[in-house]
Amino acid sequence: MISEVRSSALIQLREAAEFLRLDEGMHKLLSEPRRSLSVSVPLVRDNGNLEVFQGFRVQHNLARGPAKGGIRFHPAVNFDEVTALAMWMTWKCAVVGIPYGGAKGGIMLDPSKFSASELERVTRRYSSEILPFIGPDKDIPAPDVGTDEQTMAWIMDTYSVVAGYSVPGVVTGKPLSLGGTSGRAGATSRGVALATLELLKSHDVDSAGITVAVEGFGKVGALAALFLQEAGMRVIAVSDIDGGLYCSSGIDVRALMDEIASGLPSVSESSQGDYLGRSELIGMKVDVLIPAALEGSVTIDNVDLVQARFIVEGANGPVTPAADAILEERGVVVLPDILANAGGVVVSYLEWVQNLQSYSWSDMEVQLKLADVMQKAYKEVFELKQAEHLTFRRAAHVIGVGRVADAMLARGIFP
Q1: For the segment 153-193, what is each residue's pLDDT rounded down to a tens digit?
Q2: Are 142 and 173 in contact (CB under 8 A)?
Q3: pLDDT tens-place string over residues 311-322
Q4: Whole-angstrom distance, CA of residue 335 vs CA of residue 333
Q5: Which of 71, 247, 382, 410 is a Cys-bridge partner for 105, taking CB atoms 3.0 to 4.6 Å apart?
Q6: What is the mean pLDDT of residues 208-222?
Q7: How far apart are CA 289 and CA 228, in angstroms?
Q8: d(CA 199, CA 308)
Q9: Rounded to whole angstroms, how far apart are CA atoms 331 and 132?
Q10: What span, in angstroms and rounded, lies between the C-alpha atoms of 262 and 153?
Q11: Mind telling me the catalytic residues?
């Protein structure tokens, strides 16, 4: 049985394929991943016990270039989730016009329950299992939920040791000392902020004083909240896995980030405001709601609670198709993940290009290039949306799917 997250990805593809009038064969080809790999990942724990975890790497499409996509460590990782995320990554790369196909990978484990040395061993073993499928010209992993630049350093080193020489371009999101790029940390968040500003501008809304709620005060959500606050918006609610925080006058996002960095276990325990239940944040009366946690945050069960005028998807697939249809009927504008959170893969591409050229750009140059790509992509999606009377999601998918289909038709099918 297909999971809800994969079903969502397939529904979105079908709608784009119908608009583009793709034939059934092309639709079927785009529905299935090019390659799927499932691996067993053994780990000897620090106490000497042996445990085995399931890992995956899925390459959805390679028509426009090498595969690109994150690796996540999370107990909910499964084949259907990874396959859906790889498909979304294909459309995301095409929408922003970078020459990649989509991929995704992960291990089914909770990284918070493992020591640093255990995480290194499990990462290196997973890397060795997927090694024949990755490479700077094949498939370039990046950080995702539960992984970071240290994880990428271990993958790069494992690959390089086997190759016999340093290969920095095999991953992106690396430490600066190993060929990482300025601006990669926080690139997804900056992209979300840029997309939000473009969204408001195109709807003639002044961003000053606009109220924002962010679900998921983590790798993406925290910095997105900070960037939006710096742009003059008022972040009044945030949440994490353990609860939420509400302050009508606005949360000091930088101070909250410092509290979390200093050991505060949850945003809900901050003295900046009042406790907010995780589920309550979705129903906050705000101008902009940013779901930046995991898939399936806004569903048929809670969509009636939504009071926001705009939803900007910081996470992948946070609004289900059923909820999407209801929001469309109510006039809520949803900026889809494949556009809104594309900043990470854009800067990953810039890092990869620098690695291939043994060159580097300054942080400001990277930020300017990111802004240029995001603004151009937003303009293309918005213009199609207006011209064809589509939602943002359908317009973005039509562009992404269309570009991939065009590339596949141009290349032809190998006999």
Answers
A1: 999 999 999 999 999 999 999 999 999 998 777 899 999 99
A2: yes
A3: 999 998 899 999
A4: 7
A5: 71
A6: 92
A7: 12
A8: 14
A9: 48
A10: 25
A11: 104
Which two three-digit tokens encode residue 400?
């992404």
C-alpha angle 338/71/363, rounded to 5°?
Answer: 65
Query: Which of left, alpha, beta for 233 (phi over 0: left; psi -120 to 50: alpha)?
Result: beta
Angstrom distance (rounded) from CA 225 to CA 216: 10
Token reading at 298: 């806004």
**Terminal-residue alpha carbon distance, the chain:** 31
Task: Give the integer Cα–Cα distance in Å for 173 and 178.
Answer: 10
Other beta carbons within 10 angstroms of residue 379's beta carbon come to: 12
What type of residue sits at position 84? A
- Whether the CB-CB separation of 266 and 240 falls below 8 Å is answered with yes
| Cα distance between residue 249 and residue 164, in whole Å | 57
3-state class of 36 per DSSP?
Answer: strand
C-alpha–C-alpha distance, residues 171 and 349, integer Å: 10
- The residues, any chain, with a CB within 8 Å of residue 88's CB and separated by 6 or more, are 9, 102, 316, 317, 337, 338
Q: What is the pLDDT of residue 178?
A: 95
Q: What are phi and psi of 165, to 5 degrees?
A: -155, 165
What's the CA gap between 95 and 346, in Å, rounded? 11
Q: Taking the CA atoms of 17, 22, 24 and 25 in sequence, report the sign of the dihedral they define.
A: negative
Neighbouring residues of 90: CB distance < 8 A, sequence distance ≥ 6: 60, 61, 101, 102, 400, 404
For residue 1, the model assigns a pLDDT of 67
Question: Cα–Cα distance between 150 and 319 in angstroms, integer?
Answer: 31
Amino acid of residue 139:
D
Collect all residues with Cβ–Cβ distance below 8 Å to 389 and sequence separation of at least 6: none
Instruction: Name the H helices within 246-390.
Output: 253-261, 321-330, 337-340, 343-357, 363-388
pTM score, two decimals? 0.93
Q: What are phi and psi of 167, to 5 degrees?
A: -130, 80
Q: How far apart are CA 317 and CA 292, in angstroms?
A: 10
Q: DSSP code of 357?
A: H
